[in-house]
Every structure is written in structure tokens, then in C-alpha cells.
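Researcher: Go.
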Amino acid sequence: MKLIVNEKELKEYFQGLRRLVWGKDQRDEEVENDKEEAIRCSLRKELYAEEFAAFLQENHNNLLRQDSFRKVLLRYLHENVELGTDAGSVTGVLNEVGRDYAEIIESGGSRVLIRFTQINYVHEV
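Model: Structure:
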């Protein structure tokens, strides 16, 4: 892959990035002396942003759903089950239930790993 970049645009890009990370109003000497505080400020802004809070909430909800789904699957551990996915169903012995996946051993001996997010249904065969 070939990348053609205008030197002036590249310089402006990195200067803008530097201003974004270290702040616009600080001089170079102040930034050198106070890099740690500038990083702390940037992190605080990011951590307390609404988008980040929404991201954390969404992932927390996903973890709770995965945990409850894991408990359902544990009831079928070492039983013959059918797991349905968008790609089709998988039938076999539920051999392992991980943190976010299930392992099925099919009748032919093949091991199939399926993430919880891909499972649409489960029932005993």
C-alpha cells in the first residue's frame, strides 16, 4: 500500500493531535513540567464523558445477560442439546460452558465452540 501525504498537512495533523492531548493554552515548557497532570485531565474528561458512561452501562448489561444465560446452559451440562444459531443448529453433548461460550461435542467427535451472543435457543434432545 502506498500512502501519499502532504508534509504541511501531516505537521498540522500532529500539532492538532498534540493540542488535543496536552491542551491548547499551555506552553511547551509548562507541558513538559506538567505532562502527568495533563494526562490526568484528559483521562478525567474521557472517563466522565456521557459516551463512555453509556459504553460502560451497555457492557455491564451484556455481562449480566451473559451470566444469566450461562446459568441456563449449566443446567444442560453433559446432556444432549441442540443450540440454534443464525447459521443453523448444532446438536451434541454440551461439554463445557465458559465465561462467554459453549462447547458442543457433535456425534462425529467434532468440537464446536459457540459464543453466547450467537446462540438463539437451546433445548434438550
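Model: The first helix runs from residue 7 to 22.
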